[in-house]
Amino acid sequence: MTLLRLFVDNLLPLLLAASAGYAVAATLKPDIRAFSSVAFNVFAPCLIFQVILESRVEMITLVRMMGFTTVGLLLLGAVAVAIARWRGWSRPLSSAVVLCVMLPNAANFGMSASLLAFGREGLMQASLYFITFSILTYTVGVLVASLGHASPKSALLGLVRVPTIWAVVIALVLRACGWSPPGPAMQAIDLLARACIPSFLVILGMQLYGVRLQGPALPLSVAGSLRLVGGFLAGWVLAPRFGLEGTAFQVGVFQSSMPTAVITTILATEYDVEPRFVASVVLLTTLVSPFTLTPALAILKG
């Protein structure tokens, strides 16, 4: 399969969907935060709840993907810390680079691309990756963004407030007990779950509107290279060591190769760690990602 065909079949539809969100943001100027809040707090938990409950994923599968995700992202973060110290960058800039490298776009782009490239099984594996990503974002991510001043209590409280985490817990409990929600409840969950992927793509386009490339060239290059290329290499090396095979291997490596997550801009703004630089990395990696993800797909599917 040629690279162009891989791009057209697996990535171009996502970019076109995201462009609709960009157009909406440019013309209607909607409240992006409100729309994003609904998607992440309603649609995403419903999708992950449905995927876990219906896929009958085994606990060992969840543990393997969570271990792979945790080690891979922390390893990339450690590399970013080492480079930042070697170059003598300021603490805010160092924190910003680590955030951009450590947090991939596992939701808006990653889950959507995994579904398109690897089908329903791919979506299930991408959901497990996203669960771990969410935990790291609201613990390690918060601590990095605050330059070490955030208390463990505040990080844990942030995690408790994430509906996705509760969706995972409830789904696993129901599976263990052999129960399932009543028919009308599952139909409602199914309707909301179907809205998740398209909403994520529209939000991605909306959030990129108005972002401009700003910041020093070397840190931009380091952050972008580690996130896109380093993420793929780390995933490729680590996946077999955590027993990931087949679709789990493909999706794990693919998710590791995603551009920087949009949520990094929220963390950077909240803790004032070079928010314009972080937004620039998000834009840069998103625009460049088709040129790295397409050959990644060729390798993973070949």
Explain what the structure shows.
The protein is mainly α and 302 residues long. It has a single domain (3-301), classed as Na+/H+ antiporter like fold. The chain contains 14 helices and no strands. It starts with a helix and ends with a helix. The mean pLDDT is 88. It is a multi-pass membrane protein. Its main location: membrane. It is found in: Membrane.
Fold topology:
Layout: H1 3-10, H2 12-28, H3 32-55, H4 59-87, H5 91-102, H6 106-145, H7 152-160, H8 163-177, H9 183-194, H10 196-208, H11 217-238, H12 246-256, H13 263-271, H14 275-301
Helix pairs in contact: 1-14, 2-10, 3-6, 3-8, 3-9, 3-10, 4-5, 4-6, 4-11, 5-11, 5-14, 6-7, 6-10, 6-12, 11-12, 11-14, 13-14
